[in-house]
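Hi support team,

I'm filing this because I wasn't sure whether my run with ribulose-5-phosphate finished correctly. The job status page said complete, but I'd like someone to confirm that the output block is well-formed before I use it downstream. Pasting the exact inputs I used:
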Amino acid sequence: MTRPEKNWIANLPANRLIAEFSVWSAELVRLGDDLARVESFADILHVDVADGHFAPAMLFFPDLVASVRRVSSRPIHVHLMVADSILLSQVEQFIDAGSDLISIHVENEAVANAALDLLDRRNVAAGMVIKVDTPVERAAKFASRLSFITLLGTAIGVKGHGLDERAGTRLQQASKIIADCGATHRIVLAADGGIREHTVPVLRQAGAETVVLGSLAFNAPSLEERMGWLHAL
Ligand SMILES: O=C(CO)[C@H](O)[C@H](O)COP(=O)(O)O
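And here is everything the job wrote out:
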């Protein structure tokens, strides 16, 4: 499959919500079929990676990203939820597997600059994710090095949960950090977790440019209608 062009982040839609499709919520036993079904609606494929320590779940691995890379032309965003001690090795492995954007956690602060240096050297876009209880300001010192900032709206590494009531205020804080950080490149603000029909308008209003769609997209009775609704918000 063709890889996304070099400046794919700058070229993401700016006049509507960007749709990240979470592979975790796909029909995993028929993953290739389900990814083919959503290919034309997904702006980005989102792959969660969790090590059972940093986050309670055990999720996904580089070979899966390499396989997805072979069947999809969509940009692949890997969200790493792993302990400091293995972060650099995981970044390297997911770069080798063909990721287009890798987000580390602000809570990996001790090794964050080393991970961002590695992504820079390997020419892969960098993102940062903030857990729902972590002050958003902690990402400020990294912001100018990032292409994506993602705020979790639920506990880390769970699905099927409702949106935390602080999500809107936290997105507004993150928008300000992006506006004030002095970057001349685009930094996309993303909301991940608790993405439901009644929460997406609120998140959009609060400044989210992209939402990580799980069941809202994969279980939609009509994906075409759901995406028409999302794009019109
Ligand atoms: O990481 C996630 C939630 O934090 C995933 O994006 C998950 O796929 C969401 O699923 P759902 O929207 O069905 O809860």
